[in-house]
Design a protein that fits this description.
single chain; Jelly Rolls; Arc Repressor Mutant, subunit A; 2 domains; transcription; cNMP-bd_dom_sf
Length: about 220
């Protein structure tokens, strides 16, 4: 299936309020980039030259520990989610984390200068960006709440529901080690909890792909 830059941007929340002319102009400056599974999109410390919109597949954003051995997965993004939308506005514009494709993926690259100009020239884009960043801030607050106050099963259930809402059924999980780092636990507990969800009929698992069969059961666990 062909991926069209303009169609991807039109479905991305930050750009949805653009008129046709502005959208076409931005699409002409952007370009598609295809990534193999495991291919690096950018590395922590690289200068920020562009932001990215995921068009297809899944991309994980992560940091390495000081020894360069262990990954801490910060978030996983699927179609129509933006990467590096904060980094482009930093006073010292360097990527604060790294990103790589979890699956074969396609991203839209938007040059930093073109995005700056668009925000300056189009107040609706600036307002949409503020709303988007506010939602991301809310996600960080919920992440802190989840790590500090919730049991691992509830954290995992909330994570699965969030991925389902953003990406639909059949999304790809990171490895158990990466997911454990994200949920502030250990891989063995992640494996055990996923197995419990599977045996209860709440999820269906095929390799690393997940179908949420009973979202209401996961919501009850989160709410409980």
């Amino acid at each position: 299936m062909t991926v069209r830059v303009e169609a991807v941007l039109a479905r991305t929340p930050v750009f949805q309020e653009l008129g046709g002319e502005d959208l076409e102009a931005l699409a002409r400056l952007a370009r598609l980039r295809r990534l193999a599974a495991g291919e690096v999109l950018f590395l922590e410390g690289d200068p920020v030259e562009r932001l990215f919109v995921v068009a297809r597949g899944a991309v994980r954003v992560f940091k390495m520990d000081p020894g360069g051995r262990r990954q801490l997965v910060l978030h996983v993004e699927g179609p129509y989610r933006v990467l590096a939308e904060v980094a482009v506005f930093l006073e010292r514009p360097f990527y604060p984390a790294s990103a790589e494709a979890m699956t074969p993926a396609v991203v839209v690259e938007v040059p930093r200068g073109a995005f700056y100009e668009l925000v300056d020239r189009r107040p609706p884009v600036a307002r949409a960006l503020i709303r988007y960043l506010a939602r991301r801030q809310g996600e960080l607050v919920r992440l802190l709440d989840r790590v500090v106050f919730r049991e691992v099963g509830a954290r995992l259930a909330e994570y699965l529901l969030g991925r389902l809402e953003r990406e639909g059924q059949g999304f790809v999980l990171p490895t158990n080690a990466e997911l454990a780092a994200f949920l502030a636990t250990v891989p063995e507990i992640v494996s055990r909890k996923l197995g419990q969800f599977y045996r209860a009929g709440w999820v269906r698992l095929e390799a690393r792909r997940v179908w949420v069969v009973r979202p209401e059961a996961l919501r009850e666990l989160v709410g409980g």
